[in-house]
User: What shape does this take?
Amino acid sequence: MQAGAQLEAAAERAAPRAERAWAWSMSAIIALLLALIVFTTLHWGMQPPSSVETIDSTRLQLGGEFSEANLGTSVSPNGAVTVRVLAQQYAFVPKCIVVPADTPITLRAVSADVVHGFSVQGTNVNTMVVPGYVATLSTRFAQPGEHRMPCHEFCGVGHQGMWAHVRVVAREQFPFEQASKAAVNCEQR
Assistant: This one.
């Protein structure tokens, strides 16, 4: 009986110490997490990540990279294929995009008004398009084909009709020479 009483007394002394140790440990972890949250909030709030490219959404059509003449697929002198897309309520401009198959492609999209998003069906291309920022994706379409590109972020009452087509053509059928002079889309081919 004596041993049982000693064991019970030892447990009664050890339990509060263990509880205090756990309480201090959990308090330290919570304090560390809160400090991390505050630090990252202040740091990223004052300086966005360097890979984020900003743009003035109110001046998109006045000139520059996303003016109407530059929307669509273009080929730079070094052979890089770039697709520029403007998302606005309730359409993508251009409505139909043509790209070469089995070629590295950089997709650059901007929004003129509200948050939009798009996914090219049957592929892994999927992004949000936020006003004031340029959404940039790199992709490659393995085979020729037609893909729908719907807006997947609710953008207003006409949202259900906001979609475009991506037409992937064989490399030898893509108008590289024409695209090196001006942006092309399905209607211009």
Summary: Residues 57-188 form a domain with the Immunoglobulin-like fold (CATH 2.60.40.420). The first strand starts at residue 53 and ends at 54.
